[in-house]
Each structure stands twice: as C-alpha cells, then as structure tokens.
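Give me the fold.
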Amino acid sequence: MMFKKNIIKTLGISLLMLGNSHLLTAQQTTVTLSADKPSGQISKHIYGHFAEHLGRCIYDGFYVGENSSIPNTEGVRNDIIAALKNLNIPNLRWPGGCFADRYHWKDGVGPKGQRPSIVNTMWGGVTEDNSFGTHDFLNMCKLLGTEPYLAGNTGSGTVQELSDWVQYVNFEGKSPMSDLRVKNGQQKPWNVKFWGVGNEAWGCGGNMTPEYYVGEYRRYATFMEGKNLFKIASGANVDDYHWTETLMKGIPLHMMDGIALHHYSFPSWDKKGPAVGFTEQEYFETMKTALRMDELITKHAAIMDKYDPKKKIALVVDEWGGWFDVETGTNPGFLYQQNTMRDAMIAGTTLNIFNNHNDRVKIANLAQCVNVLQAVILTNKEKMLLSPTYHVMEMYKVHQDATLLPVVVKSDDYVVGNEKLPAVSVSASKDAKGLTHISAVNIDRNKSESIEIILSGAQYKTVRGRILTSAKADDHNTFEKPDFVKPAEFKGANLKAGKLTVKVPPFSIVVLELE
C-alpha cells in the first residue's frame, strides 16, 4: 500500500509540474512577413500626443513660467522639450479634449498680466490665469519641432470666434486678426494645418445628435478659411457606428479631411481599478479593451469605405490610452495615474494596430503627454521621469513614415479563466535607409512566447534588437528610481535560413532591426 501511495504521489507531483510547465516553457507563434509586398506608408502622425488643460498637464507640467527655478525656455521645461524631441513627436493636440469647447482663445493672448482668469469647470474646478495661451503653445511646438493640432470650440463658442482664430494664426496679409497677432508680438503666421472642428460633440462638446452636428460642422467648416487646412470632424465614441455613417452621408467629402475616434482601455468604465496593484483579471480585461481597437477601426473604416472608396478621409484616433483610478490623495478631476508595464502593453499593441491599418488611420494622439492618464512623462517639482509608455514610443519611432510590410500572425492564446486573447501582436516596416524593423508584443502575463518569423521576399544577414521588460506587470518608474523600467539590448533572436526565431518573455516588447 505504501509503495502504491508513493507511486500515486510521485505521479501527482509530475502531473502538477507538467501543468505548470507553461510558466517556464516558451509557447509557439508563427508570423509570415512579406518583405516584397510593401503596403503604403505608415504616417508618422499616428505617433502624436495630446496636451489638455487638465490637472497638471499644462500648468506644473509643460509650463512652469519664466521665473521658475526649473530650467525653462519661455516658461516651458527644458527637460520635457528634450525628452519629447527624442521621441520625434510629429504633432501635439491642444487645448483639449473637453476643455476645448469651453476655451475662448482671445482670453489667452496679449500681455499676460492683462489676461482674464477662467474656471476650468470640466477638470477639477480650478482657476487658471490664462498665462499659457495660443502664442505659448505654438511657440512651444516650434521648440519641439512638431506640428500643432488645434481643437476648435464649437460647443460654447461661435463660428466667428473659430474663424477669427484661423485668421489670427494663419493669415499673412493685413487683416484685423493678423494685425492683432502682430500687436501681440508675432510678426509671421504659424501656418497651423490640423484643426479639430469641436471635440466629442456627442458628449462634453455639446451633447449633440449626429444629425445636428453635421449641420454645425458644415457651418463652422465653411468659415474656417485658409490654405491647406486639414479639418477634422468630431467623430464617434467607441462603437457608435451610426455617428460615423451620419457624418459620411451628411458632410461633403471636400469639406473635411478626417473623422475622429475616441477609445480608452480599462477593466470596465464603471470600475477602472488601480493603476498599480491590479489583479490578473483586471490586467486581462484591460488588454481586451485595448485589442478591441482593431475591431473598431475595421468597422468604422468599412463604413467610411462606402462613401470614400479612395480613402481620402483619414480616421483620426485623437484620444487613446489607459484610464484607471487616480492615485490616492490626488484631485479626482486631475486624472493623475502611475504608468506601468501594463501601459506599455497597451501602447505596443495599439501602435501595432495603427501601423497595420495605415490605409485609413493617418493621425492618432496618445492621451495624455504629461501627468495625465497614460502619460509618457511624469513630474514632481524639479524632478521628471520617463514612463514605460515613453520607452515604447521611443522604440517604435523607427516606424514613423516607413513603408508597411504586411504580416500574417498565428498567435497562441493568453488564457484567463474561460476567456482568451491572442498573446502576440506584430507590425513591421522598412525605413528610408532600407532597414527592416519588426515590433512584437507578448501580452501574456505568465508565459514566454517563441515566435517563428518566416521572412518572405528578402534576405537578411544581421539582426539586432531591444527589449522592454520587467519582473512584474505593475512595475513602474518612480522619482526615486526613474530608470527602474527601461529598454535593454535584446539577444533572444536567431536568424537562420530565411527564418527568425524570437523568444519574448511575458508582458514584454521587442523591436528588431534587420539588415
């Protein structure tokens, strides 16, 4: 009897070890990359960012004022300027968000001491002195080497007000608004190309129906006069396909250049959960909403294709990212949250989706840039840190304006309970120097993934790589340890006989360069 019990016990231990072997053994995913079938350009503008008057994004974030002891240029932190220039950020959206339809631009120009104060009723009920306005933002964009994206007020504003703003920043000749600009110290126009005609018109931008907004858009857009304007209509909230259909039917294509789409990632809208210390179920649900971006783009693009088969109108995902509970002890209206490896997973998978939908997605804006939601930068007085999301954006900048190389991915599953998600997402491109880059994300919280990439249509001799990984899914950088999570050299790729094998650890991002 004892012998039999020992056999059963040994067998049980062996079965237990076998059942847990997924924690140690890499699973198999296959990818086919067609290097000889280039599929158009990946617009650099999908790597855009967003700066709203929300919490500590502008004031005590970007802008500390000219008299601050923190090194600055015209009040904008030099360390933030350097960090964002390193990302090659292509565009920056301002002043909102929901704030945009409460903002009156004329309050933010002229001598700073004479500007009226306003109450930010949308975000925290704080009083702002308007010391950061149109000149400050557009000159900051010059410092950053980025294109400004101005969101116009169609909610509480007027057609005349938005028309005047366009003339103020863009008109080179003599006019009342250009004269005012010169009086305020700016001789030459800034020539702003990207303009949002309202924001979230279905909600905080006016609670409009799509049918009503179509009329408002047509009226506002008519009087936004100037050369080379790229006008972006306030688009759908997540899966409101009726909104997209109504806009595509009701607005003549020559009157608009893009339609916006907003979609955030979280465990659930009503119970977002903590940014740090989340459960695996919360992690899984967050990744489910992040990966849903592919479905949303596919379905909205299919509607757009019916009315715009030549794909002249861009899908502009000008708000995306993770949204969780605010950090304990902070103003709930400031949306300040930590940024972990989970956020890196959101960023990596989402950017892969955007890359692979390059035929329709032309602009996107991560929400938001500094101290708000899925920020790439966090500040605390003179201290600044770069988040895991920052490092993803920096690793992925190799895709900006590169040529998309199609991939077909057959991924293993990431399983939690009775649900599953594809564990691996991939995108690839070829840059102007002829280098091929492959970005691969493994969202599985427990298992490594062994990825076999079949390289079709090209021969490569060398492979180099970088990886962003950490020991725990909620690992993050702090002001005490600002470099706790950062990219490192990756040596887990092997190139042989037209195949590339890559072993990617759990919740990790790898970017490979092939030559």
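The chain has two domains: 30-37+406-514, 42-400.
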